[in-house]
């Protein structure tokens, strides 16, 4: 991608530090000892620990995978092929709900890109695979007045946005696989957004709604000071 985009620092002007905010949202440390963490291994433990960690200290524990777990809510329902649905609506000709099987039956695209969080951690060359968002938008038929997309999540709280132009890029996926395996619950499975050219906060986990809107509706972090356009610097943006 040689096209230069404005280089905004995504976290600039954030009115409250995110660690502090996540701490405020956290349920407190009391639940940690009771968390049944052995069942899902170290990453799952970190996930559960950070859900109840009001200090932010779990972010300092070593995680061999390089990823940190983020959720703005303490617990998220688990979904699979029996109960997952992705609703596409708003300013489209043909609103519909896709099951996991529907999404798996569509053409799959694999994108390998560097993942960067505004908190400073990164995981280079991470493969994601799924359906191009542009494909779903074409299926639904965006109306003439459709200008942007609002994404919602089955955690009941997170949201994100893209302009229609951004959403139509070939490196923006409704992802089913991450690191060549089905996306785990902790990473936002069974379906998350992957916006390769932008900071990872744009990649909404537990994706359940895609709504075409007539203007950009700022998402959860954008309402708290993050840039609506979360472009990575050019050097970090090399997905094809
Ligand atoms: N639903 C939801 N999606 C989300 C978030 C979240 O808190 N909730 N956090 C975002 C941020 S800031 C990052 S860095 C990544 C973290 O993804 P991971 O937990 O798989 O590492 O998810 C993004 N998508
Ligand atoms: Mo992030």
TrEMBL record:
This is Molybdopterin-dependent oxidoreductase. The keyword Transmembrane helix applies. Pfam families: Oxidored_molyb (PF00174). Keywords: Membrane, Transmembrane, Transmembrane helix. InterPro entries: OxRdtase_Mopterin-bd_dom, OxRdtase_Mopterin-bd_sf, TAT_signal. The chain crosses the membrane at residues 20-38. Residues 74-221 form the Oxidoreductase molybdopterin-binding domain. It comes from Streptomyces andamanensis. The keyword Membrane applies. Coiled coil: none annotated.
